[in-house]
Amino acid sequence: MPGFSLASRLDGAIGGKTATAFEKAFGVKTVGELLEHYPRRYARRGELTPIDSLPLGEPVTIVAEVVSANERRMQNRRGSLLEVVISDGDGRMSLTFFNQPWRLKDLTPGRRGIFSGKVGEYRRQTQLTNPDYELFDDIAEARAEAEVTAKRPIPIYPATSSIPSTLVQKTISLVLDGLGEVEDPLPDDLRTRRGLLPARAAFEQIHRPETDDDIPPAIATLRMHEAFVLQTALLQQRQFVRALSATKRPAAPGGLLERFDAILPFELTADQQSVGAQLEADLVADWPMNRLVQGEVGSGKTLVALRAMLQVAESGGQSALIAPTEVLAGQHLRSIARMLGPELAPEVMPTLLTGQMPAAERRRAALRVASGQARIVVGTHALLSATTTFADLGFVVVDEQHRFGVDQREALRAKGSSPHTLVLTATPIPRTVAMTVFGDLDVSTIRTMPAGRAGIQSFVAPLAEKPAWFARVWDRVAEEVALGRQAFVVCAAIDSDQLTADEKTDEPADAPAAAAEGARTRWGVVQVEALLSRLPTFSGIRVQILHGKMPSDEKDAVMQAFARGDIDVLVATTVIEVGVDVPNASTMVILEADRFGVSQLHQLRGRVGRGGLPGLCLLVTEASPGTSARSRVEAVAATLDGFALAEVDLDLRGEGDVLGGAQSGARSSLRLLRVVTDADLITEARAEGERLLADDPALRRHPGLAAALERRVGVEERAALAKS
């Protein structure tokens, strides 16, 4: 009988009811996905130990005979208790089982077996509670089996309350028993060169190791599988994009781009020039642009993107710029119209299209887009709706990658015929992460900042040691406002007294689990507004709040009032993280800064110091010195270099959620691979993948790899890996 393959549906292998439970608990639907639910660690059964010398609290394995077994009702709670006495000839101990009367028919006096569990004590007698056991008819067989079993590691799996580790172990064992041939995703020569196991043996040894020595080679093999399949998928995606033919969009002498450059009131920075040249070349290449541009907040990414949009507009092509929020879309449109000036703006007609626009206005905008009159379209997810059509969509720009889902990007691309794609991100991405997640994109970086930036000073206000500094923070804000400047105050929640599960949208996206460290959020937007209203120094200061639960038009109105200078201090959640531009804002106070991740603190800080004014960022924290929470905050205060911080973030967060919410499509595919520690392996896997695809682009000679790609990178994940 051939058995099942890695691609077989799980319900066919383990039955519908169990399969449904596993899908609900772990999201696994196929045999391969279940076998990639790897053990978290391994426990030991303990050496064979005489009953007389059992160590309390330790896991042990003993060979013994059942002396007696009795069931009784429990006095203080419902249910029954089964007490079994066993002996190894020298000593005696008891086994207790709660609410398992059916075990009486197994555990009859005279039966011998091996018993494994953790040693406890009750009324001065050693006992095992709910132990594992296996019964034998032959004592010699029992002893021999026990010797082997005692050395055999027990896999401990990620589990849930409904599916404990033991059930995962039994189910995986059942699946391994019925598994047929497993094709190897690694080429034979690569496996031989690195001394790796065949795929089938690797699965066996990671899930059913006989000894501790079986485990490391299995992990090394499966880690290479993962790196190699992931990198090959990304390289294939890149090949796929390069196989598409793109409409070339050259810039003409005296055209829109040249005229725009002539009216720019400043010189482009060296990085803006070199990245601009890359985009210019991409737009006339044989295949569509597929590029990620990363740069600090305020480094001029939008300007670089606008120059590319004008190049596309010269041939009548349209560009769509998608922003994650209404506020940001509106701001992009205003800044694009301002940069284009009165002469160029009417020619390309930059048009805003968002879901919150009044129906009549939205219809007019949609008509301009459909007719091709609007050559630059800025919007939110509304650009993806079925009713939005473009006359000639040639260029898609996605701002702030991490707020924008894979499916949504795909939907937008589908509106044009293989349009050029550019992704902008202000979150610097470490090299290994870029290679793992954006391996199919060409990556450009803008490091130099435009001249005229006054810079930002950052300070930690360490309330654990200096509680009096809390009052000083508000005095400092009042001093800045007295100078005619404005300030942001950022909180980790809307209302700390009423934190509900559905409020997580306004919690920091990459926040570490500060809650796990015990402390609840103390300062929500509501609490800070109340505090400031009681401070004498704030009596003449105009304070307003902003958070994600407010209606869109209200949020927009508040942001615009702040931008106009009608509000002095804006108390907000992280809704202000992305792209808000208020040149007069000089001060950023982040309360409970340890509740935010490194990259998010850096993003928030980038909201100030954007005009000619020097910026001030106060990171307020109650985290104790020496804790990882405090280290994160101190790391951000120590440098303004987002690229250095991205590497620090990797080190501090270790294996954690390195890929952030953005990359959840690809993150879900990382099982054993760790972006931080496996950088060399990832690099090597990429080189191997490049070699193999150059030699066998259609993978005709590597069916095992083709099958692994098909399994691992289903339609959704292929889109996730496309990241464009």
Automatic annotation (TrEMBL):
Pfam families: DEAD, Helicase_C, RecG_dom3_C, RecG_wedge. SMART domains: DEXDc, HELICc. Keywords: ATP-binding, DNA damage, DNA repair, DNA-binding, Helicase, Hydrolase, Nucleotide-binding. Residues 282-446 form the Helicase ATP-binding domain. PROSITE patterns: HELICASE_ATP_BIND_1 (PS51192), HELICASE_CTER (PS51194). InterPro entries: DEAD/DEAH_box_helicase_dom, Helicase_ATP-bd, Helicase_C-like, NA-bd_OB-fold, P-loop_NTPase, RecG/Mfd, RecG_dom3_C, RecG_wedge. It comes from the Bacteria. One of its GO terms (biological process) is DNA repair. Transmembrane segments: none annotated. One of its GO terms (molecular function) is hydrolase activity. Residues 495-651 form the Helicase C-terminal domain. SUPFAM superfamilies: Nucleic acid-binding proteins, P-loop containing nucleoside triphosphate hydrolases. CDD domains: RecG_wedge_OBF (cd04488). This is Probable DNA 3'-5' helicase RecG. It comes from Microbacterium testaceum (strain StLB037).
